[in-house]
Amino acid sequence: MSINKVGVIGTGAMGLGITQVCAQAGLTVTAVKATPGSWERAKKTLEGGLAKSVERGKMAAEDRDALLSRITFTADEHAVAESDLVIESIIEDLETKKALFRRLEHVCRPDAILATNTSTLSVTAMMAVCKHRDRIAGLHFFNPAPVMKLVEIIHGFETTDETIEALLAFSKAIDKDPVIVQDTTGFIVNRLLTPYMLNAIRMLERGTGTIESIDQAMKAGAAHPMGPFELADYIGLDVVEAMAHNIFEDVRHEHHAPPHTLTRLVQLGYLGRKTGKGFYDYAKRPAVQNPALMRPVV
Ligand SMILES: NC(=O)c1ccc[n+]([C@@H]2O[C@H](COP(=O)([O-])OP(=O)(O)OC[C@H]3O[C@@H](n4cnc5c(N)ncnc54)[C@H](O)[C@@H]3O)[C@@H](O)[C@H]2O)c1
């Protein structure tokens, strides 16, 4: 099947990024704000990002206008009824996502593909609440979605080859490099990256180094574009904690449990770049270590 109309549920960092990628590739997109309130702010956030791209000469103003003209923002889930593909990108919580899949099956066409952008949750668990399980899969984008080339296509237990083929063609059409992954917690990238970030946090707790020195070491010594703390702040500490929790629930190994410092930062609402503070304080330029972490934490 060919995919021309895409519905995106959730207009957070990833939902907006996926919306942009699809519209940039010429597809019609319906972006649904998943929580109560107006969708105006989400639209403004996307427009703000695109305005910067135009200012920096990375995008022509007319391409920006054409891209925006292909997107409809709404707060009504029913607006995705005619979509060929619906990608959910709401909060990383299994019960909330399962409830959404149940509702989407009633809203969408029976031949529509329903995909989740979950980072670590089981696609099969979401599939299990659906009747048309053959058309349920994972479509895992990376942050920022307009820049990162990888898409992990997650093969749930009852996803058909036809669905996977359609998602492969879709991923290539939106200029991404897809890989097919079997449905295991964390898939490929997060199964490797989450323990790495958790290890860096434990290293900080042991006093091996500072936030800055550990980040600097991984950038200068391993040629990583960001250090582990910069990466965690970029992903969002609530998302990192959720990933750690989900992997821990699966493997039950203490090594994968969210460390104390991560949990405390999330409790305080320091979620990284999206809230202005995480391991770093982004109100300062250049960003400095979050003052809450100046004292030993364990
Ligand atoms: N941040 C990343 O690096 C990254 C990368 C790939 C995938 N993901 C996944 O994408 C999804 C969204 O993450 P994000 O980084 O965009 O987070 P975000 O915090 O920027 O956005 C979360 C979205 O969920 C919605 N939401 C919050 N509570 C809700 C509820 N109770 N019911 C329904 N919707 C609710 C919010 O309105 C918002 O649209 C998650 O499943 C996450 O694991 C994140």
Describe the protein's architecture and organization.
The chain is an alpha/beta fold. It has two domains: 178 residues, Rossmann fold (3-Layer(aba) Sandwich), CATH 3.40.50; 98 residues, N-(1-d-carboxylethyl)-l-norvaline Dehydrogenase, domain 2 (Orthogonal Bundle). It is built from eleven helices and ten strands. It has an eight-stranded mixed beta sheet, with helices on both faces. Strands 9-10 form a two-stranded antiparallel sheet. Helix 7 crosses helix 9, helix 7 packs across helix 10 and helix 10 crosses helix 11. The longest helix is centred in the middle third of the chain and has 18 residues. The radius of gyration is 19 Å and the shape is globular. The termini are far apart. The mean pLDDT is 96. The site of nicotinamide-adenine-dinucleotide has 24 residues, from helix 1 and strand 6.
State the main characteristics:
298 residues, alpha/beta, Rossmann fold, N-(1-d-carboxylethyl)-l-norvaline Dehydrogenase, domain 2, 2 domains, 11 helices, 15% strand, binds nicotinamide-adenine-dinucleotide
